């Protein structure tokens, strides 16, 4: 049971309050429901992938902003993994192409060319505005708030698993290797969440701060929701 007495919530209760916000996750947006129930046309899927590219390339820029505001070496040591996950790396002969490249491959598996993904020609202005709001938040706010804003990832493994479960059946025309991005993210997101929760549950330790954390998570949920609103307006939502 969640109580509301004005005192700080326990870590367990605070985490439950954060998780409760998942009801506003974009997994429930009509545009996403359409994508994951097999009702989207190839054009709508391509539109989504091409627009989400704006988010994909923003994530490591956002993470660099978090690091630039963070004086704690231990936190930075953990956080840098996120940039490697998305940008890829080649260290000591070990190479990983990274999530941005995996996303481009997803786009190519849906029939887009590399060029039309990376030059951003399909990106809707309102999607870019929403993405920029997230980057600007991370540039301007204390790093602990930015860490909290990443916690929409609490709900991300479910949406990736949903795609992996439904896309091959509904969209057999998408080459299967294209879905590798989603496979990678299921584990990466779980690890990110562990780190993000550790910081958030520790730092937001009075009720006013905990309420602030809920507001921050709401802001980030809104970023994702607004992106979907913009795509629904541009590409339509089929009944
Ligand atoms: O496909 C999705 O619905 C989705 C959502 C989110 C999210 O909840 O912010 C992320 C991702 N994917 C993702 O792949 C990812 O790497 C990621 C990083 C972050 C972040 O805020 O740092 N969110 C997300």
UniProtKB/TrEMBL annotation:
GO terms for biological process: pyrroloquinoline quinone biosynthetic process. It is an enzyme of class 1 (oxidoreductase). Residues 16-229 form the Thiaminase-2/PQQC domain. It catalyses: 6-(2-amino-2-carboxyethyl)-7,8-dioxo-1,2,3,4,7,8-hexahydroquinoline-2,4-dicarboxylate + 3 O2 = pyrroloquinoline quinone + 2 H2O2 + 2 H2O + H(+). Its EC number is 1.3.3.11. Keywords: Oxidoreductase, PQQ biosynthesis. InterPro entries: Haem_Oase-like_multi-hlx (IPR016084), PqqC (IPR011845), PqqC-like (IPR039068), Thiaminase-2/PQQC (IPR004305). Pathway: Cofactor biosynthesis; pyrroloquinoline quinone biosynthesis. One of its GO terms (molecular function) is pyrroloquinoline-quinone synthase activity. Belongs to the PqqC family. Ring cyclization and eight-electron oxidation of 3a-(2-amino-2-carboxyethyl)-4,5-dioxo-4,5,6,7,8,9-hexahydroquinoline-7,9-dicarboxylic-acid to PQQ. This is Pyrroloquinoline-quinone synthase.
């Amino acid at each position: 049971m969640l109580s509301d007495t004005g005192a700080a919530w326990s870590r367990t209760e605070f985490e439950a309050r954060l998780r409760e916000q998942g009801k506003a996750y974009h997994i429930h947006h009509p545009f996403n429901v359409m994508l994951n129930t097999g009702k989207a046309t190839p054009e709508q899927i391509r539109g989504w992938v091409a627009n989400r590219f704006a988010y994909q390339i923003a994530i490591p820029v956002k993470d660099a902003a978090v690091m630039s505001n963070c004086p704690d070496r231990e936190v930075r040591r953990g956080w840098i993994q996120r940039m490697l996950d998305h940008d890829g790396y080649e260290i000591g002969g070990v190479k990983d192409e990274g999530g941005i490249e995996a996303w481009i491959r997803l786009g190519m598996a849906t029939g887009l060319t590399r060029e039309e993904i990376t030059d951003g020609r399909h990106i809707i202005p309102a999607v870019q505005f929403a993405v920029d709001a997230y980057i600007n938040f991370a540039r301007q706010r204390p790093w602990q708030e930015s860490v909290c804003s990443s916690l929409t990832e609490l709900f991300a493994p479910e949406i990736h698993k949903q795609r992996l479960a439904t896309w091959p059946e509904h969209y057999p025309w998408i080459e299967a290797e294209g879905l590798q991005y989603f496979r990678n993210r299921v584990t990466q997101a779980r690890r990110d969440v562990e780190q993000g929760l550790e910081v958030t549950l520790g730092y937001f330790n009075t009720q006013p701060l905990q309420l602030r954390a809920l507001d921050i998570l709401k802001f980030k949920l809104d970023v994702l929701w607004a992106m979907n609103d913009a795509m629904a307006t541009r590409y339509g939502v089929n009944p």
